[in-house]
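Shipment paperwork, digital attachment
Item: protein structure file
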Amino acid sequence: MLILASSSPRRSDLLAAAGIEFLTVPVKVEESVWKHEPPGDHVRRLALEKAQAAFANHPDAVVIGADTIVLVGGEIMGKPQDNDDATRMLRLLSGREHEVLTGLAVIARRGTAIEVARTRVWINPLTDTEITEYVATGEPMDKAGAYAIQGLFSKFIDRIQGSYSNVVGLPVALVYRLLKGYPEK
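Attachment content:
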C-alpha cells in the first residue's frame, strides 16, 4: 500500500494523473523554519516529519511526505498568512527569477530515502493592479510563494527550468524513481 502523507489536492491530482495508486493520509506538522536552517534542510526535515507521522500509523505501507517552498533573494516563502502577505510575496517575485524546492521523503520498512527537487522559475513584471486582482481571486492563499503555476497565475510565468510538477507541489518523476526502490511485497 502506498500512502501520500498530505491533504493537498494538487499533490493527489499529480500522482493520480501519473497512474500511481495511493491513499491519502493528512498529517499535521509544525512548518516553521528553524533559526539558521538552510532551505534545502528545511524542506527535507518537513517532508521526513510528514512521512514519519503517517508511517507511525501505517508501518506496513510505503509513505510519501513532501514539503514545498519558494526561495527568492534568500527568503523562504511558504503559504501566505493573509492577503497583505500574499501581496508582499507577489511584489517580491515580480520580474524576478526564483527557485521552488520540494523536499521528498519515502519511508518503508526497508528504509528511508530523502531528496530535494529544485526548479527555477522566471516571473514577468507584475503591475499593482495585476497583483491586487490576482490576490482577490483567493488562489494564492494556500500556495507556497502565493501563486499557482497551473492556475490563473500561469499567464505571468515567463519560463521554468526543471520539473513543472515540482512547482505545482510534487516532483512526479522523482517520486516515481524513489518508489521503484520500494517494490510491493
